[in-house]
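Section 3.1 - Work completed
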Amino acid sequence: MKDLKYEFYIAGTPEEVWKALISPEGTKQIYYGSVIRSTFQVADFLEYVGPGVDGDETVHVYGNVLEYEPNQVLRFTHYTGKSYMKDDHEFESRISYLLEPIGPCTKLTLIHDQWKEGDPHYENSIKAWWIILNNTKTLVETGSSLDFGEGS
């Protein structure tokens, strides 16, 4: 399976982009009400939790922190939550957020790689990342996320 790689240029500092990607205030807007729970220490657990099929505490995605440098890098293993897949450890992949200052802007690179052959979430991830990254860019630049009409 092909690696997914996206590059976005955002009119904001790395600190502003990082806050959108990591803080509860940012992630709730980008990830439909979900927050990240983690100490962000390397090897520690990380999970995106929010409203879903299991109520307000649905674990959508989880894994372990591989690398964490504030305002620069967040890299973690990626598993889909148990409510989406019974054998949730069958398909592991890796997600990397990389931030680089470019003048007064920030280059945000998202890499979702190390896919296992036959991962049923691959195709959905291709579509979902565009929404998440556009939401991130819009949130940093305008203070609001996009309304895709989902859940309406």
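Second construct:
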Amino acid sequence: MEVKEAIEKAKLNDQMAFNFLLDKFWNDVYGFQLKRTENENDAEDISIQTFSKAFDKIHTYDDKYVFKTWLITISKNIHIDLIRKRKSSISNTVNSDVENEYYGIIDESPSPEDKLITEQNLAKLLRDIKKLKPHYQEVINLRYFQELSYKEISEQLEEPINNVKVKLLRAKKLLAEIITKK
């Protein structure tokens, strides 16, 4: 799949296209933020927010611009907003009206990562999950073991639904990498 094709499919809520774009551009956005923040956790959080916002607003993307540049710009703006919030000490709250306006990222069929995860022996799978960062362990646990919906996970973590979806996509990819390395 090419980037332009993936963007067009993502505009039609194609889950595989979202996965492709996340995989293709994660390292670019994360690396950019790691240089800016010099903090792995902040870089990861901002990267998750970047993809969440980009996927939510994918229909506004103009193909006159390079997609990577568009993502980096979103990422840079999120970082600037974060710095402003920290400086002004405003509490980080989620506007419930905005939460209801998101464009759903449809998760219709099991991805290759989902299939791989379900095929694993439970004990081995739990050991592999423990190798993930705690916030990834948490979303995997809430989604697959407690079987909560995205909305329920969003409420429990007090994060926007799109952040939960991106975090879960990333957690599944990392877990699949851990499983396949064996």
